[in-house]
Specification:
This protein is 77% helix and 0% strand. It has 145 residues and is mostly helical. The protein has one domain (2-144). Helix 4 packs antiparallel against helix 7 (123-144). The longest helix is centred in the first third of the chain and has 24 residues, at 26-49. The two termini are 23 Å apart.
Length: 145
Amino acid sequence: MFFVAILPYLATWRIRHPAGGGRPSPSARATYMGLAVGTAAIGVVALDALGSPGRVLAAVAAVLISLAVVAVTNAKWGWSNHMAACAAGVAMLLVLFGWPALWATCALPAVAWARLSLGRHVPAELVLGAAVGATVSASVFAALS
C-alpha cells in the first residue's frame, strides 16, 4: 500500500494540483501516472522478494499495466485515472477471491461521486476509465496466469 497509494499520492501532490486550481495538463497527468506506476513497480519487487504468491503478483502487475495503459491514453482521451485504478482493483479482487469480494464494487460509485463532485470528470469519462481499467487488468491477468 505504501508504494501503490501513499508514496505516489505524496510525490505527485503538486503535479495533480496546479496553481489556480485548474485541471492538470495532459503531460502532467501522464507524468504523475508514470510516477505512480514506477513507485508501484518497486512495491511489486518488494512483494516478490517477500515471497508473495504468484497470483497476487500477477494481479498487482495487471493493475500496474492497466494504469500504464490508462496513463498513456489518458493524455489523449482524458478518462478518469481514478476510476480506471478502482475498476482494475475491483476486477482483481473478484478474480482472486470470487463472489466474496463482490463488496469491493461499492468503491466504484464512491469514486465516481468524488470525481464528479470535484468537477474533474464528466460521467462518460468515468465510465470509460472504469471500462478500460477493468478490461486491461483482467486481460493482462489472464495472460500472466
